Amino acid sequence: MAVYKILRAGDQVLRQIAKPVPENEITAKETKKLVRDMFDTMIDAKGLGLAAPQIGILKQIVVIGFSKNERYPKLESEMERQVLINPVITPVRSEILGFWEGCLSVPGMRGYVERPSKIKLAWHDEKGEAFEKIIDGFNAVVYQHECDHLQGILYLDRLKDPRLFGFNEELEIADSINKTQTEAV
Ligand code: ZN
Question: Which of 57, 83, 89, 170 is 20 to 30 A from residue 133's alpha carbon, by CA?
């Protein structure tokens, strides 16, 4: 088991564009090890997803997968563990969906972000197989958030309003006063 240090906002590596994994490297031993280490790191940090640039590796690899955990007690859905190599996202609906997103690279904070509610996702898995799928709802938000990391984009860049951002504890206090619903990535 190898748990990497997760880079935090301000680290310039998070702002760089990750390189696609060449086809002959998708099933290579080094990629398998990296994917294993990414899952170890994501689970250790209780994240829902992790992109390779978050551990300082500028490759287009994302791991995703979650069940209910204490970091996200309000989550209703669960997502099977999944590896996305060289993912490409195309929005297929102009409707937008707003969520209070969080990020392992911006620990302890949340911000309100709106994104397309339905996307087409194309990717390779760790066995080199190509997939394409239409995804909507909360899962579409998770994929978009993680794939943004591959382009050097953080959810902070997409805040609906800079005032809709803050520390979890303060937002929870405000939430209990305002009774607004909060969700998180
Ligand atoms: Zn993130």
Answer: 57
Q: What is the CATH number of the domain that holds 93?
A: 3.90.45.10
Residues carrying an active site annotation:
146
The pTM for the full model equals 0.90
The answer to whether position 57 is within a domain reads yes
Of 43, 59, 31, 62, nearest in space to 4 by CA: 43
Give distance in angstroms: CA of 167 to centre of ligand 1: 16
* Residue 141 located in a structural domain: yes
Domain with 142, as residue range(s), is 12-184
pLDDT in tens, 44-66: 999 999 999 999 999 999 999 97
Question: Hey, what are 63's tokens?
Answer: 């791991």
Residue 4 resides in a domain: no
pLDDT of residue 182: 47
Distance between CA atoms of residues 73 and 60, nearest Å: 29
Cα of 50 vs centre of ligand 1, distance in Å, is 7
Going from the Cα of 104 to the center of ligand 1, the distance in angstroms, rounded, reads 6
